[in-house]
Structure formats: C-alpha cells, structure tokens
Here is the input.
Amino acid sequence: MLRQALAGERNASEELVRRLLPPAHALAWRLTGNGTEAEDIVQEAFCRLWQLAPRFEPRARVSTLFTTIVRNLCMDRFRRHHENAGEEALEALADPGRTPEENWLDGVRSARLHDALRRLPSRQRAALMMWAWQECDVGEIAHELGVAENAAHQLLFRARARLRALLSGDEHD
Here is the structure.
C-alpha cells in the first residue's frame, strides 16, 4: 500500500493515513502528554515515512516502521525538552494549590526520573516506555522491537533494574 500511495494513488494514500494515524497519534500523545506536540510528531513521522518509502522492504510491515519513526521522534523531543528545560519551565508547571517546597520536590523527582530514563540504553528505554506508557504487553514489545519475547522480557527486566539503581544512586555513568 505504501508503494501505491507513493505512486500517487489517492485511495491508497487515504487508506494508509486512515490506518496509521489513530494509533500513531495515541502513542505520541501518551509519550508526550501533549496533543499539539503529538500532532506535530505524527505529521513529521508521515514526512519521514514518505522519505523512507523508496527504500522500504515490502516484506516488512508499514505499521511497524511508522511506529518506530513515531517512537524515535518522541524520544528525540523528550531528550531535547529535558536538555533545555530550566528552572523557569519547572516553575511554569507548578500547581498553585501546593507549597513551593512541594512543587520544587516534584520538579526534582521529575528531573531525576527523566535523567535516569535518558541514561538507559535506547532499546531498554523503548521497551520500558512501551510497557509503562503504552501499556503494551511483552508480545507487542517483542514484535515492535523485532526481538523474541524472551529478549523483550530481558530488556524490561534490565531497564527496570537499571532505572531502580539510577534513581537510588547506586549506579553512576
């Protein structure tokens, strides 16, 4: 269908967007927590899909490629956002009904979590994000990452163990 869409067949293009858009937008929204940002990511993902289309292997699933593109774009945004996030951004997120100390502690915890997630190897981070935020089961994670279910279990186990160590201060890079 991707090749047909690329060849200019309108029905194929519409069907491709109809199939790919809802799950991609849901994934981007879950990973970013922001509807506008999710829309931007999905739009960029379609542009990248069109750029990659001439090299696409027909035996692969378009949905898998598209999900990977969306997930990678979300991770890129996550990294950029948290590398550039300063104290003003944390203050802007503060809940006015809470004390400054509570807001500060939440900001510190959030920054530590984001830093720890950023420090995970990319495949472990992807598996953990799919499990925690997308509520994917191990079979879905294995399929999306192109690994056996046992390997997906290992990625999750190692990601959780490393995240725990990073958050407790037991591990340093």
Summary: The chain has nine helices and no strands.
